[in-house]
């Protein structure tokens, strides 16, 4: 048997969708070398951890996994361990000091170096680091997509916003947009392969194109992507309230395929904290966007991110965030406990909030939000929605699920009549806080 057929890689992705997308490019390179994916770490010849450092909890989990790998390597000394992504960019060779069993550390702009580094490591053992952020962020690389009908499409890398709590601008660098022609070409190719839904990815999609200085902007990209045959749904994330414009909302509303789901992180309901966070908008300005979007986009599904316990957050400021939840009534809020990140301005601010208080506020916030999530899902009962079938749920093969254009997950009892990737109609029977239950309409 050909030796190449017996080489395996084990890949874990932490963090955001951008990392998921980068992982597909790591996997593409590994497969071009003849490696196949395994879910069993002990079988692997290469283990790749594509990491996140946005919060301390992510880093803690990853360090735990790296610790576990020490034993795996003792059993298999030829194993190559690669740590990539944001934490690799942040830690660089400190990772080798912390865990000498790591072989490769690859930063956010150096994805294309994987093949070369694996070859070098195979020729000679040692520690190999590649974390140069001055090279281009995008490279034309083989991509192994993990899903068949849904595809991530990166449109830009990096962030120029420097929110005072956030480490992303330091580990992903400044904003760099991919040319519109490259993005359109990639989507046209995958549309021919049968992909139906794409998600345009960037840390701040609303500033897409501004660095290209040729008049390109996010509205123009949406219009170009909307024209591509075969694609049914266009998603985008993440939006930034400072750069989202009424014209972009018009482009979304006037398109055929751009979905009715908008993820618009507010972070806090206090103008004073928004200022300290360097977010660049007030609650009133944010509300103007929400009102316009709700007017222009029928059945808008609105989600957000909120941080509790930012330095200096008083009970009163926190209550302003609770009030905001009541005012906006989001379909869902992703809620985070503020995590100080070394090197960011907020980590050095006075009046850090004690951990127990942060946890209490998180719970209070979730209790308020869950009421609205449930109410809005219950309002979907006895209505019909179009979903693209994703397949069986994690725990039960007899229950399948799909998502609405608004990104709501609906589960139904599988009767064999719908296949993965089909676009079907589902009637909602019961709305719950996190999920909806329904049945297929034949
Ligand atoms: N602590 C807590 N949450 C954070 N986020 C970013 N940085 C931090 C941090 N230091 C949250 C923000 C952002 C989401 C992706 O992660 O809410 O929108
Ligand atoms: Fe971080 Fe702010 Fe940039 Fe989002 S916009 S990645 S929160 S700095």
UniProtKB/TrEMBL annotation:
Binds 2 [4Fe-4S] clusters. One cluster is coordinated with 3 cysteines and an exchangeable S-adenosyl-L-methionine. Pfam families: Radical_SAM, TRAM, UPF0004. [4Fe-4S] cluster 2 binds at residues 159, 163, 166. [4Fe-4S] cluster 1 binds at residues 16, 52, 86. Residues 7-123 form the MTTase N-terminal domain. Catalyzes the methylthiolation of N6-(dimethylallyl)adenosine (i(6)A), leading to the formation of 2-methylthio-N6-(dimethylallyl)adenosine (ms(2)i(6)A) at position 37 in tRNAs that read codons beginning with uridine. It comes from Megasphaera stantonii. Residues 145-375 form the Radical SAM core domain. This is tRNA-2-methylthio-N(6)-dimethylallyladenosine synthase.
């Amino acid at each position: 048997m050909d030796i190449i057929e017996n080489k395996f890689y084990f890949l874990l992705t932490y963090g955001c969708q951008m990392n998921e997308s980068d992982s597909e490019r790591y996997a593409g390179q590994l497969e071009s070398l003849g490696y196949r994916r395994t879910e069993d770490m002990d079988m692997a010849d290469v283990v790749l951890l594509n990491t996140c450092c946005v919060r301390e909890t992510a880093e803690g989990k990853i360090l735990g996994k790296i610790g576990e790998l020490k034993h795996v390597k003792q059993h298999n000394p030829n194993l190559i361990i690669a740590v990539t992504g944001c934490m690799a960019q942040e830690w660089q060779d400190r990772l080798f000091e912390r865990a000498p069993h790591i072989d490769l550390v690859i930063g956010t702009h150096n994805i294309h170096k994987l093949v070369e580094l694996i070859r070098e490591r195979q020729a000679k053992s040692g520690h190999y680091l590649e974390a140069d952020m001055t090279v281009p962020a995008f490279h034309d690389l083989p991509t192994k997509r993990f899903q068949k009908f849904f595809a991530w499409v990166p449109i830009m890398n990096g962030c120029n916003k420097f929110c005072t709590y956030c480490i992303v601008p330091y580990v992903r660098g400044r904003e760099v947009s991919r040319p519109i022609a490259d993005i359109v070409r990639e989507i046209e190719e995958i549309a021919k392969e049968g992909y139906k839904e794409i998600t345009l990815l960037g840390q701040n999609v609303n500033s897409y194109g501004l660095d290209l200085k040729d008049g390109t902007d996010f509205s123009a990209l949406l219009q170009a992507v909307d024209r591509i045959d075969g694609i049914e749904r266009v998603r985008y994330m993440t939006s930034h309230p400072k750069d989202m414009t009424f014209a972009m909302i018009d482009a979304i509303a006037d398109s055929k395929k751009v979905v009715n789901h908008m993820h618009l992180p507010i972070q806090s309901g206090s103008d004073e904290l928004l200022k300290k966070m360097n977010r660049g908008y007030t609650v009133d300005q944010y509300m103007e966007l929400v009102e316009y979007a709700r007017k222009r986009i029928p059945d808008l599904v609105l989600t957000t991110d909120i941080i509790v316990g930012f330095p200096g957050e008083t009970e009163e400021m926190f209550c302003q965030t609770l009030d905001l939840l009541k005012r906006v009534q989001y379909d869902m809020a992703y809620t985070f406990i503020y995590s100080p990140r070394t090197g960011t301005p907020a980590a050095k601010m006075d009046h850090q909030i004690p951990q127990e208080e942060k946890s209490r506020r998180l719970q209070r916030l979730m209790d308020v939000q869950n009421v609205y999530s449930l109410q809005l899902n219950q309002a979907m009962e006895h209505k019909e929605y179009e979903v693209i079938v994703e397949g069986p749920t994690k725990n039960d093969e007899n229950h399948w699920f799909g998502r609405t254009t608004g990104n709501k997950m609906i589960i139904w009892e599988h009767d064999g009549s719908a296949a993965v990737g089909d676009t079907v109609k589902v009637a909602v029977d019961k709305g719950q806080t996190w999920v909806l239950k329904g049945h297929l309409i034949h």
